[in-house]
Amino acid sequence: MALKRIKSWLVAVFSLGMFVFSNVSIAQEVQQPVVTDEAVHAEHTEKLDPAKLIMEHIKDAHDFHFFSLGEFEASLPLPVILYSPTKGFDMFSSSRFHHGQEAYNGYKVQEGDIVALDGSKVYDLSITKNVVQMILALVVLVLLMTGIAKKYKNGHGVNTAPNGWQNAIEPVITFVRDEVAKPNLGKKSSKYMPYLLTVFFFILINSLFGLLPGAANVTGNMAFTMVLAIISLLVILFSTNTHFWGHIFWPPGVPLFVKVILIPIELAGVLLIKPAALMIRLFANMVAGHIIILSFISLIFIFGAMSSVAGFGFSPISILFTVFIYFIELLVAFIQAFIFTNLTAVFIGQSLEGGHDDVDGHADPIIA
After folding, report:
1. 26 lies in a domain?
2. pLDDT higher for 328 or 21?
3. Is 40 contained in some domain?
4. Which H, E and C letters describe the chain, residue by residue?
5. Which of 17, 47, 172, 261 is deepest in the core (most CB within 10 A)?
């Protein structure tokens, strides 16, 4: 496992002994060749692959791996559900693979993906750690919001001062309403508030869960952000009107030869560029933070592979930077949830725009 390999100073001790006893003199000399510390550290520097270690951490997996202690692996296996056109459905625990070291029932784990030993096509329908964490985030979101709603229904926070989670959630809801929904959606803001609040809190909860040790980096997964972007695109498209599409397919006040160029650009902006901006912005910012944190941690083992003194000496610096970036990531979780929600509201507001006689708060600006 990758977490074993990073403990390079322990491996160096055992490898030094194996290197000494297994070395054969090619020059037919009587004395055993001298093995220096530099040779051992160079050997383990080659074995240490920080890039692979980081990618293994941020990728999806079929189990929750927490830590390794010698031969002991602290992990939580998840159910594997596979479909093969030749073998049909198959379901078993991911522990059957013994952390990717063994094959089971004609399948094996190769670079995090399950493949068939005979090379046939396999459809992986497993409940991975990303799926489990999204379900947990959904459960937390529903329980939290329904609990707060019951308090308001019973008069807590209406006739009396809010208490408990109401004190934390109410300012956030007010902020989304006053700073995101109303400025971009006008009088129709209340119609889209349930969706905007759901997107905001769902992204926020998943981002915060992703900062826990051993948890999945769901918001740093392209598939997750792509689905959210597609859902937002559907909301945007269903909010459009004839005036909006009239400006897309026949921009007013533009020469004919410019319209030929402008129409596909405008159409691509609605169907491709806007959802891509939502998808890539959230994915890139969330995965970047995890990569930075893991890079600082990996520096300990990189220096440790060079010299044990250097590894222990650099550890305090690396830990301080890691803690600093970790707190920055807490702030980034809130910022990215706000940006995704705000951009969604902006795009919906653009689709609601009417003509100059629109009295719904989306009239074109009148230049005096």
Report:
1. no
2. 328
3. no
4. CHHHHCCHHHHHHHHHHHHHHHCCCCCCCCCCCCCCHHHHHHHHHHHCCHHHHHHHHHCCCCEEEEEEECCEEEEEECEEEEEECCCEEEEEEHHHHCCCCCCECCEEEECCEEEECCCCCCEECCCCHHHHHHHHHHHHHHHHHHHHHHHHHCCCCCCCCCCCHHHHHHHHHHHHHHHHHHHHHHHHHHHHHHHHHHHHHHHHHHHHHCCCCCCCCHHHCHHHHHHHHHHHHHHHHHCCCHHHHHHHHCCCCCCHHHHHHHHHHHHHHHHHHHHHHHHHHHHHHHHHHHHHHHHHHHHHHHHHHHCHHHHHHHHHHHHHHHHHHHHHHHHHHHHHHHHHHHHHHHHHHHHCCCCCCCCCCCCCCCCC
5. 172
Residue 46 pLDDT > 70: no
- pLDDT tens by residue, 59-106: 888 888 777 776 777 788 899 999 988 888 999 998 888 877 889 888
285 in a structural domain = yes
Structural domain span for residue 261: 129-351
Report d(CA 189, CA 348) in Å as an integer. Answer: 10
Query: How many domains does the chain divide into?
Result: 1
Tracing tokens 């190769």 back to the chain, one arrives at 110
φ, ψ of residue 158 in degrees (nearest 5): -110, -60
**Residue 9: per-residue pLDDT:** 35
Give phi and psi for 7, each to the nearest 5. -80, 65
Q: Which two tokens stand for residue 8?
A: 């390079």
